[in-house]
Amino acid sequence: MPFRPYSVTDYVEDVSPGHGALPPRARYSSSDAASLSLNGTWRFRLSGTADAEDDSFAAAEYDAGAWAEVRVPGHWVLQGHGSPIYTNHLYPFPVDPPRVPTENPTGDHRLVFDLPRDWPGPADGGAVLRFDGVESCARVWLNGTDLGEFKGSRLPHEFAVGDLLRATGNVLAVRVHQWSAGSYLEDQDQWWLPGIFRDVTLLHRPAGSALDFFVHASYDHRRGTGTLRVDSDVDGRVTVPDLGIDIGTGDEATVPVEPWSAEIPRLYDAVLATEGERVPLRIGFRTVELSDGLIKVNGRAVLFKGVNRHEWHPERGRALDPQTMREDVLLMKRHNVNAVRTSHYPPHPAFLDLCDEYGLWVIDECDLETHGFTEQGWRGNPVDDDRWTPALLDRAARMVERDKNHPSVVVWSLGNEAGTGRGLTAMADWIHHRDPSRPVHYEGDIDCRDTDMYSRMYAGHAEVERIGRGLDGGPARRRELPFILCEYAHAMGNGPGGLADYQRLFERHDRLQGGFVWEWIDHGITHPELGYAYGGDFGEELHDGNFVCDGLVFPDRRPSPGLVEYKKVIEPVAVAGDGADGTVRITNKYDFADLSALAFTWSYQVDGETVESGGLPVPALAPGESADVKLPQPPPGAPAGEALWTVRAVLAADAPWAPRDHVVAWGQIRVTERRVPYVAATARPVRDDGVITLGPGTFDARTGALTAIGGVAVSAPRLDVWRATTDNDDGAAWQSDVRYGLLWRKLGLHRMRHRLDGVVADEDALTVRTRVAPAARELGLAAVYRWTSDGGRLRLTVSVGPEGDWQVPLPRLGVRFGLPAADRVRWFGGGPGEAYPDTRSASAIGRWRSTVDDLQTPYVRPQENGARVDVRWVELGGLRIEGDPEFLLTVRRWTSEDLDAAAHRTDLTPGEQVWVNLDHAQHGIGSQSCGPGPLPQYHLHAEPAEFSFVFTPAPGTV
Predict the structure, then answer these.
(1) Residue 184, Cβ neighbours under 10 Å: how many?
(2) What angle do CA 305, 306, 308 make, to 5 degrees?
């Protein structure tokens, strides 16, 4: 065909899903038909507008030798061509659907390829060209023939190309537009990243090959049988050797089977054989139903312990390789996660293969979000405009048809934050008709008119409890449906707090079938100067900052403290007991599995040191069962001190997702209480030449400030109430709840002044009286430091009393001081990782070691981090410090003020001192970056408090 000297671009703003693509069908990972991956290095040209270049680049004779090169799959903005854009919900272009800006970055991609020598000829069938994902609109040519165009970025599109192929010199040309009418349907709180970001594959289609097929594999939990039927567009036979099944397509077979579940993901290898193709299948027998107001699988209610998962890699964006996807699944399984919501689009199809194999419940979500229309009261929302309904139905069909044969997919979701409208109803009706075997989800359907469960985002604990008790009101239909939190516990920065409190509610009320933490991974982009970049770091006109970094794993997939906490909170075995009677209660909290895959161990610890350990016989309890198990007698001759039992449930043998001895669950049981440190006040303060000495302590006689302990120089400890506000402290701008981070700053708690009111050295103590208060405010804190010593040790007792009208909690309450040097840190208390009042479930009492640098938690945006709770004593910098009561420990090479001022981790530079915070308490964390703040019991109220620390010189602990 002749090429136009201009570019036709009407399709870019056409509300239709596209033209020329084949109907959607089931995806399968392999068959005996030939295939050719077209991934690799392509030629690339970027234009500023959709019509800047004509179509001639698609011609075979066109010379693209001077073009740049890009990787496919990939995003051109992550390969040096333009820049990424991050917005949470604001469209980064004027809202005038379906129109898009004239400035529309457009990438022309070109690949020349040869067919393999053994590629079948035209007489042996046809061929299909498949694109698994292109953002946001693509037009395709093969060997000069215009195949069509499509929208639906995270969905597959196939074109028939058999009669166009050549043995050599095939020219595949793809024009990709960043903005299109489809962009209005893809406003999904993530980076806007144009490109061909999923696989491109050429598939041979032999005569008589499989087209579309639907595997129906149900399970009857009463009889223990599975029923298999495979409906196929092309007649064939289905064989399952392990079950002795050999039936024709469309026929049924019922046989005894082991069912599939996320806990026991039993898959049967099968083959669908048609005249021209053999397709390997992996079949999992399971039945999903709504029964007794609950989502049940194989007759049992399930409790979702889930995460929302965007696809992300810090260098490749949404272009994920198989190893990265497998890493995600393994990390989830190792942290007791049992469910994934594919927010907010169908994932790479290989991810669902992994969910089938390793066992994860999946809510498969359609590629749909129109959140930006909220800015105009949802006027013009495509989901309530009949012109857009064909595009919505196309998206629903491409998701369902692609993924319908995955046993892991137990729920279909219409999309996310797209308001309400006729188009969503049409999608729900189509899905219910096409696949009545799975329920339908959509959080925006608040009255559950079209959907099969009541779903909410970020509801607070009190409201969730009311829903669990059936006191939520609303339409009668909704009150009869199960409830899930499709998003909760916003994992942005330090947090989320309150996970254990949510889990207690889920386990207390049957109607509450769990939730999905937002979200799995921080979407930081690797940056040479900033470490990881977030919104605004690329000069975006509109952006939402680090709101894109809100995951349970860091961009490099290192687990955050939030994921470690979540693992503990949702662990499938409960360990509880009373150290006095020597028994431990073990409860199986799995939904399907017994405990036969686990081994149990005990260890007896005194003052954090393990004295003895061994195996603990525990019966293979069925789901929901408990047993009281007798612990051994405490080891004879065990030293005196604070004693406790630690009981662990570990894998008894290697599992596909973790090795033998991987810890699945654990608990600690106190036997004897801690002995608090006592220092007799026998030493007297001695004043000499402007200096006061008291035991090992040296003080400035005028100010009473401590300057040294033994031979260790110290920057005087003084009251500290400020912390570098967390994302959850600062909250979200749209929230009506009190955002304490802003109030703290408004009050001036980040710039407290310390007034000296008196220094008194008497017979047995040095007492320093101060008032700590912010400028311009009348409120403050009276702080009294009382130093005593027995000659070898130095005790500080801090008494704090609020003055004025304190109507806000404090960020922290403790003392801060500086040391000239410290590297190694050794402590007895909670560890090994970070913890705060409402994120402390995973903190185990023991003896721990670290370096100062390793105590830091590398949040993408620096903020308060790294506290260890329940610390009895710590050794660092030549000192040993004991607490009465236990304290929170934080050690840094920069101050809280430095931390507060930093926008990226590369802004933090070690100073000349190491700063140590010994906190009596801290305010809770919560998840107010997009949810509720800390529960009242985790607020740090300004009220009278007294706490003490004992300092002892400890050479060799630097």
Answers:
(1) 27
(2) 165
Q: What is the distance between the alpha carbons of residues 837 and 819, in angstroms, rounded to a whole number?
A: 27
- Going from the C-alpha of 64 to that of each of 245, 362, 553, 582, the distances in angstroms are 54, 43, 41, 78
DSSP structural state of residue 330: H
> What single-letter amino acid sits at 902?
A
Taking only the tens place, the pLDDT of each residue in 55-94 is 999 999 999 999 999 999 999 999 999 999 999 999 999 9
Q: Over pLDDT 70: what percentage of the chain?
A: 99
Asked if 862 and 904 touch (Cβ cutoff 8 Å), the reply is: yes
637: Cβ contacts below 8 Å, ≥ 6 apart: none
Q: Which residues are the active-site residues? A: 417, 487
Of residues 218, 927, 58, the one with CA closest to residue 565: 927
CA-based nearest residue to 818, from 732, 901, 691, 709 = 709
HEC secondary structure over 861-913: CCCCCCCEEEEEEEEECCEEEEEEEEEEEEEECCCHHHHHHCCCHHHCCCCCC
Whether 1 has a pLDDT exceeding 80, the answer reads no
Q: Are 859 and 925 in contact (CB under 8 A)?
A: no
Q: Report which residue type is found at 124.
A: D
Helix H, strand E, coil C: the string for 213-270 is: EEEEEEEECCCCEEEEEEEECCCEEEEEHHHCEEEECCCEEEEECCCECCCCECCEEE
Amino acid (one-letter) located at 843:
S
Q: Distance between CA 585 and CA 571 in Å, rounded?
A: 15
Q: What is the pLDDT of residue 955?
A: 81
Q: Is the pLDDT of residue 214 over 90?
A: yes
Tell me how far apart the alpha carbons of residues 754 and 746 are, in angstroms, rounded to a whole number: 18
Pairing of strands 691-694, 18-19: unpaired
Tens of pLDDT, residue by residue over 377-402, are 999 999 999 999 999 999 999 999 99
Distance CA 168, CA 285 (A): 45
pLDDT tens per residue across span 696-738 = 999 999 999 999 999 999 999 999 999 999 999 999 988 889 9
> pLDDT band for position 41 (50/70/90)?
very high
Q: What pTM did the predictor assign?
A: 0.97
Strand pairing report for 304-308 and 361-365? unpaired
The pLDDT value recorded for residue 42 is: 98
Nearest C-alpha neighbor of 485 from the set 859, 930, 933: 930
Residues 6+ apart with CB under 8 A from 123: none
Contact 691, 703 (CB under 8 A): no
pLDDT of 4 > 70? The answer is no
How far is CA 247 from its chain centroid?
Answer: 43
